[in-house]
């Protein structure tokens, strides 16, 4: 199955606009292939979503996206970002439902699904995050959690029609592997991805087979290649290691 390969970085609350421009200048010198066949995306902090940073990112074949959008496009929602304005500004990607949003900012399957619906309707490309916490895995509840989180995603996909050119994908990020240095082994990642793939196929049929599944959680320049060689791992979502152009350029070329 030929699924879109997506190599994505999540900068979280790190790097400002001038650091971002420097980052891409450095990366541009490190990359051999500037117009890749896989999609390269970075989700910087919202204030980096501006022309100067976008121009610098383009020299590396990298697109930029928002780390979250609100389900409404305007109104009295202090502190939120509008997906419509994001599009008008020329940005076409958003990350949604990241575990840090779920853990620290009250994101639920329900609110994440509302954001997903809006993002798809606006024609945005989406990386939608799911993943179990350590106590859920150790308590034998991993599959139950993945079924619940995947269902929130597939229920939206059943009622919305992404355009052919639109990429809407899932990132499996086991929470115990995020920022901890404890990566899932390639076998663990593949097992979870195959399980998610089965859920997607039973809910969405052929579209579920085509959905790219990214792995995230302590991906590094050293382990990315092996993770990406698994049949159901179609990309990676990288936090810490995406902050260093030297490391992330290796991951982009792995
Ligand atoms: P990490 O973060 O690569 O630093 O573990 C991944 C993420 O949170 O997306």
Count of DSSP strands: 8
Helix share, percent: 40-55%
- The mean pLDDT is 96
Biggest beta-sheet profile: 8 strands, parallel, barrel
| Major sheet: arrangement of strands | 1-2-3-4-5-6-7-8
Which blocks of ≥5 consecutive residues have pLDDT under 50? none
Q: What compounds are bound to the protein?
A: 2-phosphoglycolic acid
> From the alpha-carbon coordinates, what is the Rg to the nearest angstrom?
17 Å
Task: Give a description of the structure.
The protein is α/β, with parallel strands linked by helices and 254 residues long. It is 42% helix and 15% strand. It is built from 11 helices and 8 strands. The protein has an 8-stranded parallel β-barrel with strand order 1-2-3-4-5-6-7-8, surrounded by 5 helices. Bound molecules: 2-phosphoglycolic acid. 2-phosphoglycolic acid is lined by residues 10, 173, 178-179, 216-219, 237-241.
Summarize, please.
It contains eleven helices and eight strands. The chain has 254 residues and is α/β, with parallel strands linked by helices.
